[in-house]
Amino acid sequence: xxxxxxxxxxxxxxxxxxxxxxxxxxxxxxxxxxxxAEDATxxxxxxxxxxxxxxxxNVVLRRDEVRQLVLSSPIPAPIHDTFDLRMAGPWELxxxxxxxxxxxxxxxxxxxxxxxxxxxxxxxxxxxxxxLRVAMVEYGLRILFLxxxxxxxxALLLFLAVQRLLVVPIxxxxxxxxxxxxxxxxxxxxxxxxxxxxxxxxxxxxxASMQTQLTGALRQKERLAQLGGAVxxxxxxxxxxxxxxxxxxxRLEASADPAVARAAPKLVGSISRAVSLCESTLAFGKAEExxxxxKRFALRVLAExxxxxxxxxxxxxxxxxxxxxxxxxxxxxxxxxxxxxxSNLVRNARQAIEATGQxxxxxxxxxxxxxxxxxxxxxxxxxxxxxxxxxLFEAFQGGARKGGTGLGLAIxxxxxxxxxxxxxxxxxxxxxxxxxxxxxxxxxxxxxx
Length: 449
Fold this sequence. Notes:
The chain is of the alpha+beta class. The model has no long low-confidence stretch (mean pLDDT 80). It starts with a helix and ends in a 9-residue tail after the last strand. It has helices at 2-35, 44-54, 90-102, 129-182, 198-254, 260-286, 299-309, 335-355, 386-390, 407-418, and strands spanning 58-63, 66-71, 79-84, 108-113, 122-128, 295-298, 319-324, 330-333, 360-368, 372-379, 422-429, 432-440. A hairpin with a 2-residue loop joins β1 (58-63) and β2 (66-71). It has 3 domains: 2-146; 235-286, no CATH class; 295-440, 2-Layer Sandwich (Heat Shock Protein 90). Keywords: Kinase, Membrane, Phosphoprotein, Transferase, Transmembrane, Transmembrane helix, Two-component regulatory system.
């Protein structure tokens, strides 16, 4: 509205001044045409035509200090006001223009100005304000339309600028916050600062720092809670193991029985199991997994490295391994963390098959769909016991192997969640066990193209 006022008011005042100057110029031309005649007189018809063309009632010229009525006609009403354009300033022009617009009456006014080309000292005309007001209204409407169009274009540009610099980054922050709230443990949902506006970028950096700290705190809290829940069980199991070791130790010290030779390995085994359990517990309680470093790599090459690391590349052996992954399949993940996940699953499958005393097969397959990359790890082992299925990914409770702590699958599931994916048990029956890993293609907060 301020722009409308700043554009409209000076423009309408300037239009009125130009309109009056044009009438003065036409009146001067008509006067010069009369003065050029031989006797400086014309007929009434020609005089009326000259006045009509100039849109005035009479014309007065002052030349050589002599005021001369050059053209004249009857005036329909008394003169209402006089306007001298020779000394009028901007504020006077604006005031007089406003007076014309606000007065709907068709009044007679006197206008004084300087003749063109110094053809005298002054020129004076009388005219009506009705045609002037009509012309000013038409011009004002055009100016209002033009200024409104300029305002609309300006508003559109401002809207686009606000959308680009503020609304879109704010929506992105809100989208990241919503996605992060759904899965705070997913390190891939931590916002990556990218705003162009400095204040928003500072806010994004602060949010990213807070999310990173919160994710780490949640993981540590979860692990400490699991560790605290397992302390009682560990203490009980450890006490039983050490009690057995103590009995064998007492027998070694107090007896020369030949059975001591057979008791010594049992003592060593009991102590070893106690040490292994303690080490696994301490390692789980102190572990702090770093956020995944996402890079593209060939999944088949990683699978071959896992199989080789587990000693299953040799064709001869009780456990065979098959890889059904396209050579050109590229995924985006942290190769080190995914190696640990696959290694744990393959190792569990191998141990399950070996425990049966018979041969078996482990199969690694992979592929992709529109949303995710998927990896299947299956075996022909005996399947999982019911209790292991109920607490499969819970630390200290999901162990399916005798002597195991149940930490492997819990850590593997956590690493997959850190990628924004899921580790699920697809099936487990008498024909074998199969795990399914799904890793999303789209990062949290990204818009689908």
